[in-house]
Amino acid sequence: MLMFVELLSAPADDTAEDNTIKVCSLPDNVINEINSYEETVNRIVNTATSGQFKDFTWNELRKFVDKFGSRFEGTQNLENSIDYMLQNLRNHSLENVHGEPAMVPHWVRGSESASLILPREKDIALLGLGFSVGTPEDGITAEAIVVKSFDELKQRAEEIPGKIVVFNQEFESYRKTVTYRSGGAREAAKLGAVAALIRSITPVSLYTPHTGYMFYAENVKKIPAACITVEDAELLYRLQQEGEELKINLKMEAQLLPEVESRNVVAELAGDKQSEKIVIVSGHIDSWDVGQGAMDDGGGAFISWSSIVLLKQLDLRPKRTIRAILWTAEEMGAFGAKQYIKSPDAEKRNLQFVMESDIGTFKPLGLEVSGNDQVMCIVQRVLSLLKPLGNLKVKKGIEGDDIEDWLKMGVPGASLWNQNDKYFWYHHTKADTMLVLDPSSLDSGTALFAAVSYVLADISIDLPQEIPHK
Amino acid sequence: MLMFVELLSAPADDTAEDNTIKVCSLPDNVINEINSYEETVNRIVNTATSGQFKDFTWNELRKFVDKFGSRFEGTQNLENSIDYMLQNLRNHSLENVHGEPAMVPHWVRGSESASLILPREKDIALLGLGFSVGTPEDGITAEAIVVKSFDELKQRAEEIPGKIVVFNQEFESYRKTVTYRSGGAREAAKLGAVAALIRSITPVSLYTPHTGYMFYAENVKKIPAACITVEDAELLYRLQQEGEELKINLKMEAQLLPEVESRNVVAELAGDKQSEKIVIVSGHIDSWDVGQGAMDDGGGAFISWSSIVLLKQLDLRPKRTIRAILWTAEEMGAFGAKQYIKSPDAEKRNLQFVMESDIGTFKPLGLEVSGNDQVMCIVQRVLSLLKPLGNLKVKKGIEGDDIEDWLKMGVPGASLWNQNDKYFWYHHTKADTMLVLDPSSLDSGTALFAAVSYVLADISIDLPQEIPHK
Known about the structure:
The structure is a homodimer. Chain A is α/β, with parallel strands linked by helices. Chain A has helices at 16-19, 28-35, 38-49, 56-68, 76-91, 150-155, 174-190, 230-241, 294-313, 335-341, 373-383, 404-409, 423-426, 439-458, and strands at 95-108, 112-118, 122-124, 126-128, 140-147, 164-167, 195-199, 225-228, 246-252, 255-269, 274-284, 320-327, 351-356, 364-370, 393-396, 413-418. Chain A has two domains: 16-107 and 260-458, 3-Layer(aba) Sandwich (Aminopeptidase); 112-253, 3-Layer(bba) Sandwich (Glucose Oxidase, domain 1), CATH 3.50.30.30. In chain A, strands 1-10-12-11-13-16-14-15 form an eight-stranded mixed sheet. The two termini of chain A are 22 Å apart. The interface between A and B is medium-sized, with 32 and 32 residues.
């Protein structure tokens, strides 16, 4: 997961209470129709959480990420993992299983290192940022200057030329603080910096560098950019405060190669009445090139396709089609989704509801929903059928990336809202492994996606589409 | 901190409540005498926590660890840091400041790496263990076998010869689980293993390897030993469960060089009546060769000497001498302390009370005390004067290392008991930096050590010595 989309007035990282639905007035016939699914929903939940399907999602994900490890765009390993999933989805008797081609970036990290030279020698752990240029072979050796904010950068503009700028910004929230990762190099380069080292975007560190992508700007020199640990950013800041001159050597082999073809993975449970109408459940199959991409976004991708395997095994075939999509190349900027959404298959008029999970598959709290009040209330009513999973709520305001373009067009949709307090501890690090996930939360996520997608695919009314307010 | 010493019946890692002192019956004159220090103790606490001394310990420690980084036995950097401290203690007008020579091990890590070769290629992060031998230059390449316990190792004895044994033991408590780090290689070698990789001893990991020392046994082949991350230990275990053959390459340049001379750092506030009698406050100045050694044991060492600087600045000179000792070479086995304790200066009959801090300097909870009931009750009474620091308690049973030999001889002593729930997150890792510590907890620790050492150095009665029950 990379970006946060603000489609409704309420910010996505506000406290839950403020953004949940307080009052709903659905027509009685709609309420009654939704309530009529209660027994079906119970079967779905029971089978996923304590029946034969228990631990299915965790076990499938374990096999997948242990076999392939990280799955970065541009790599043969990602394509091999896509081949494996196409076969695996066919093995589970899903329908219309195929890959949809998409061109994706091919950024290569290469070897990379940084060393403090003055006031004393010390290795600096780092992870180069996606799209960053590399350094000359011997690296860049320069004086370093540490700033706490973009404001301080501007205040010290005269000191910047020729320097390596170290951003030691505090972590406020991912959405606020990630602007340093995405734009730090650009802002530093405007003032003449030769490289940017950015404190990793995380509330917690065990000397843990995080990666992610960054942007350059036209007419601004492209300078190398990497994230360093919170510990080293703070050390450099303290040394500067002590009056020490800082000198750093940075070596990065990073380079951007020509685009390559990858595939979004598609699998369906075809509707038996209005199969041209679609509910989408989705997550991305690619991951950063560190860790296992088990959390980001193995969990989201796997609850998506597992949910339709579960429906199929329960012999539940809705009126509309449920389509699972495992997006490719989300990490470098939702390349798979952006191309898919322009394809004829993605015609918005046929879309009933689009779901994504890409901010963790910890214990579900409900859904973050984009849509008008009627959509919110229908989804809230459906969630109320899922009592065994807790008091699930609809929250207005969505954090999403792959489904963003649809939501902007007015297609109603949702993202899995979950107890993801620790999500950014692991995000884009070597620590994103199977240990972050627990089987029962994955079962609950699968049940939630299965139940909501089934009811919305089967219900008699089409959900209204409405361009959200900016 | 390395080892846990169990000197009283109650285990050191039981819950606090069970081991605190419930009933005391001190003579009235002793109670009255201790209570008479209340105003003095208040001055100590106020000056340390809100007066001119506020943040003194944190700032001194920051300057020290930022200047030197890690301070491993055998290195010139440790000796340079000792020179700095000798000068710094003199600058703060402490008395009898000097180094006491001690021979210390000189183990050198060198470069080290491990790679999974089968079933797929993957780097395995590791930290070699102190005293481990290295591998041949090309490393050791062998099939790996993963066990969850020493019992499983024995059950699978026939499979062990020629293998790299991976210990994937669960973390129970440091004291219980560290036996895998210290003895895993030895037990594996007895059965013919060629190397041992041990899951790091920690409850929490962000792909974080931990180091520490290990033991070989006579007549058992010395095989290389390193700790790997919890994440990789679990991955290897899962792959084995899946039926995969594991092959690993391990390269370590580790070697043990001849012993070198180091120094324990000594500084005093001389007593004005019975200066030959001593209260000791101590922590160790050396650290592992990763991180900054700010927590282990910069904090403990610095509250020790800061406490007597504080007393000196308050013009508080006790009857007996308070001696601060910054031990050398604790990390490889308390080499500095073991030699010091055999020296004439360390005569036990002159020792009133020996204090150590080496399990964190987080928010103080009280003292872990070794001594008879009278000692426990006197210390509890002294702690009751420190109300502004919270409801401080005496806990029976001590975790210590450097003062262990004295305690075994019957000298009463104590270790700082503190809110150290997260201690083993950082222990012996690159994440042991200044960020682990907060200024106000260090102020409280300094105040506690200053107040307790002052009262026990000044009080009219000598504390009884009694060999603890085994």
